[in-house]
Amino acid sequence: MTAKQEQTAITPTRAQDYPEWYQQVIRAADLAETSPVRGCMVIKPWGFSLWENIRAALDRMFRETGHVNAYFPLFIPLSFLEKEAEHVEGFAKECAVVTHHRLEAGPDGKLVPAGELEEPLVVRPTSETIIGATYAKWVQSYRDLPLLINQWANVVRWEMRTRLFLRTTEFLWQEGHTAHETKQEAWDETVRMLEVYRKFAHDYMAMPVIAGEKTPCQRFPGAVNTFCIEAMMQDRKALQAGTSHFLGQNFAKASEIIFQNRAGEREFAWTTSWGVSTRLIGGILMTHGDDNGMVMPPRLAPSHVVILPILRSDSDRAAVLAYCEELAAALRAAQYDGAPVRVELDARDQNAGEKSWQWIKKGIPVRVEVGPRDIASNSVFVGRRDKAPRERYGQNRAEFVAGIGALLEDIQNSLFAKADAFRAENTVDIGGMDDFRAFFTPANAGKPEIHGGFARAHWCGGAECENSVTNELSVTIRCVPSGEADETGKCVVCGSPSPRRVIFAKAY
Amino acid sequence: MTAKQEQTAITPTRAQDYPEWYQQVIRAADLAETSPVRGCMVIKPWGFSLWENIRAALDRMFRETGHVNAYFPLFIPLSFLEKEAEHVEGFAKECAVVTHHRLEAGPDGKLVPAGELEEPLVVRPTSETIIGATYAKWVQSYRDLPLLINQWANVVRWEMRTRLFLRTTEFLWQEGHTAHETKQEAWDETVRMLEVYRKFAHDYMAMPVIAGEKTPCQRFPGAVNTFCIEAMMQDRKALQAGTSHFLGQNFAKASEIIFQNRAGEREFAWTTSWGVSTRLIGGILMTHGDDNGMVMPPRLAPSHVVILPILRSDSDRAAVLAYCEELAAALRAAQYDGAPVRVELDARDQNAGEKSWQWIKKGIPVRVEVGPRDIASNSVFVGRRDKAPRERYGQNRAEFVAGIGALLEDIQNSLFAKADAFRAENTVDIGGMDDFRAFFTPANAGKPEIHGGFARAHWCGGAECENSVTNELSVTIRCVPSGEADETGKCVVCGSPSPRRVIFAKAY
Fold this sequence. Notes:
Two copies of one chain form a homodimer.
Chain A: H1 18-28, E1 32-34, E2 41-43, H2 45-64, E3 68-69, E4 75-77, H3 78-81, H4 85-91, E5 97-105, E6 111-123, H5 128-138, E7 147-156, E8 170-180, H6 183-203, E9 209-213, E10 225-232, E11 238-246, H7 250-255, E12 258-260, E13 266-268, E14 270-277, H8 279-288, E15 305-309, H9 314-333, E16 335-336, E17 339-340, E18 343-345, H10 352-362, E19 366-370, H11 372-376, E20 379-384, E21 392-396, H12 397-402, H13 404-425, E22 427-430, H14 433-440, E23 454-458, H15 463-473, E24 476-481, E25 489-490, E26 497-498, E27 501-505
Parallel strand pairs in A: 3-7, 15-18, 15-19, 22-23
Antiparallel strand pairs in A: 1-2, 4-6, 5-6, 7-8, 8-14, 9-10, 9-24, 10-11, 11-14, 12-13, 16-17, 19-20, 20-21, 23-27, 24-27, 25-26
Helix pairs in contact in A: 2-6
């Protein structure tokens, strides 16, 4: 090796082993860990605080678009799930099933399940059917519509191969469920919530996404149309980050959500559902994380600033801590994104350099070191998480405090710009199958982290063409992008006419 | 009937049939309903908003006392539950048990559970054992302590007789789980969180409570000491509204939470747990609700003020609505309890009287009617939920807006004062068993709603005396009140010496 290798806080690096890097960042940032329960995770305080901030921001956006929260049962009777044929088929293979309601001592004295239920209960994998049954009771007339309800909840899908945040047996999410008088209103709602997700990803997660429609093969089980936002991770794979479903009258028919319309006729309601989950945390990590750990976008960061007192001698101690306390109070009195700046003061008796690295790994946007010399010059020593760890600068304390909101916003914007540039670099228009294969075939078999990127290519609309690239290259159509001008061309697989380009990629 | 009967919005009244009145208030206030899933409830938007406000206020109090939130798995392996013998015995009879992880077509084509699990999973009835297993990994040294973590979650206890909010198979709650270096620290934490609950009940729910310790028979399964807050409902029965458990080293031993102490020795940690649940909503209803429905204490009310435009003619319409919009904006710019006043403007095309009654039933603290005459006099017509529906008053609009915070606080205080007076009236010192029997035996068998009240009586400390009153009168010892001076006396049951009075009552 000729160039000097920069030491990194995370081993392995992204280039060395991307999937393992992901796990190590979660560990180093103290976000979550696997639990003793197969496939279920423990979300640790630092990771859960990120989720609470995601939840608060989305909840505000849902309210602004007219939605209210409610809570529906965890359990779904098996017969409810069976009411929509495609739906139950989609979830049957991954259902946690409650069959008994107590425990009693078995023949050998050990406890065994007892009190078998007449009808098994499925732990909700999603709530269309149980909420549909409830809406059927609530809706009599067009005057009862629309119903615009969201639920924050845990759901369970029994996954065989799990990965923290990205695919876990239990996860946290929100599921919006709405019912409308007309097809158009339900369609508008579906599109509106997709736009809320797109905006949230851009403005809060600093994660550029492509909003579009799923192909029929990739629809939510029972939906008429499924829309999604797709992001590019740093291994160039796609992450589906949110979905919004136009359910037509399918679930209204299954659940008998019937209302008397303005013409006095009985009609099935038109419904939608839409959701995002703790998977978003994995998306933030893989969009912004680097070889030194997590990188929190300021608008969602559990804390914005950590103050690190440099305590070299006992004689300095009191003065340094007092200066830091004042600094913390001044920062907390400042605002960012409409709320007080969130500040940590890390006065633990540990080496300052070690503490600084812990906070780098946790991804806190701004680190401020304060030692006796800084106090003498009435200044602070600042490090930004979007810059290299050594790239720090001194600044007058009052100026730093006055500029904290602008600094955080600058970091937020720089994270978005970097992710946007990365995605642009790795998104290519592809015309023919040879180029397509080359794009998705690693040039160097020793670099398994390279997954091509987003290929914008024509597609005839046929499931056969779609399946053939999936079978050959593990590539899927991520979406048919919304809002793009039509462009006639030839299907990259079969050469038949195509009305527009779609996004192909490998995906999580 | 000679006296003219005042018409009430809820039938039956509290005096006619208290349990049925409770159900009818929930229905009329649109708080919740039973679901198609046995024992599980649907919490409707108005009821859920109340829970969100409870959650936000408590969450702030938990943070102020140094706690952070995290999330642990929904499922508990059966072997974990079995680690603490008393604990599993306490919950074995009410466990929802997951035994299979998928569905497949059975012999008759219908779906049946398949993929049997090697070890059954219990849907958490409480999380001491799964959190204990996690803490065991996190704690190595005294430096890792204390752990001060709270979880907001759903839990399941299979109940045979359910009642909305008070006793449901699934309910929402928070559970704090802390681990400490010393017995004293864990003890202090137990007492501190009991005080948080007492203060929350008083200051937010406007519900007076007695804080005290449970008798050994009534401890949480596996706890060394259980503390509780007990409130008196309007049928004079007690409601246990929150519990805080000193767990000693019992669960640390079961889960092997072992740390190296300051002396370099291995020691079991000292743990606590504490929780309140959606049961609090039932407590608010039965503390403040009246024969016209729900009464929301302002500090927790989903909305504080509803503006009801009086729209008698189309010509008035635009002017009245504009005035109401301005009023709403002015109120929303005002503050109550550190946040903007929450305002509804109900412009639905319905009879104003009907709408007013709907909001009375929902328990909104303040109603404001605005018609053309009010506009002409620049005034509003105000009704308070803590007064009779007809007892309303006109007020200058600017004065009303300027005084809204004080008005809400006055309602909050009047609700507390009324509940406190009711409890005082129905709390009596009782010396002998004859008086005790008379107190808890309805004088009139046709008035099943009378349950005596709180009897402050001496108790020797013996389980036999405790059980005998439970068996004879369905009365339990609610708690040994904290912070009362010792007073020697004789056990109300057996006459043996007793160091202090305890609270006896019938209970939910």
